[in-house]
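Input.
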Amino acid sequence: MADLPDISSMKLSELKSELNLYGVDSSTFAEKSEFTAALQNARSTMPRPSTTYREVEQPKPPSEEKKSSSSKSSSSSHRSKNASSGSASSSSRRTNAPAPAAPSATPQTQQASTPAPAATTTNSINMKKLTAMRSPVTALQQIKEHPSQNIIGERNNSFLPGSPFSFSLYGSTQESDSAIIRIPDGVCLKITCASVNRKAMEEYLKQKGSIGVSLRLSSEENPEMLPMWTFDNNRSSGYTVSSLGLKVCGPRTIRLLAYMEMGFRTGASVDVHVFGSVTLNRDAFD
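Output.
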């Protein structure tokens, strides 16, 4: 990929153009980091498109446009001359030829000549399915320093349909620290399991007032952060849950947060690891 530009130096419009070459749907992306992550993943996992980035961005020279227009005009005048001579000869032949009998088309013949709309619908579905197969689920969490809100870290992953989903949520007491999960059209995200590291949790619980951590979810329909699972020091019997059963199909954007349950703020946190899978939305292609 020596002829391709460096991703970190590309403009947003250039990122979109190259993603379109790979067939990746970027309509749900909002942050530039999501575009760069998706393009990096496409370059690493997908075949290189036959049309390169530079060929798409480079305009046609004016001299070539003039040559093309002049060749088109000369070819069109040549065709018009041939058409006029052909029409004259055909008219002379028609005067001597007997009149043909009128065709008697049956309803079955007329129906057979009409193109079947089912074929067009099938092609449209296949194109939509192909686009969905190249559109990844993206997960982005920006780790911020409080109260300054300075970004001190970032967790960014993308998952194509057919791949397992795994993401580590950085624990926080601020809802603004939640991870943004974007699910494109024709794709579904299934979240089945969550866990915390036993040793890290035991160290965290040694602090005064520490209770545990909860996995919280919000959606476009309900922006309130609601708990899906809570590890409670006094009530939980294990460090893993395997019965979440969450399925979200795109186009959708959800937020996940590992909320630290504590008596007072100490600055310490524990990661919550989330697991699942990314699949195609079969109902969208029926």
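Residues 52-60, 80-95 have pLDDT under 50 and may be disordered.
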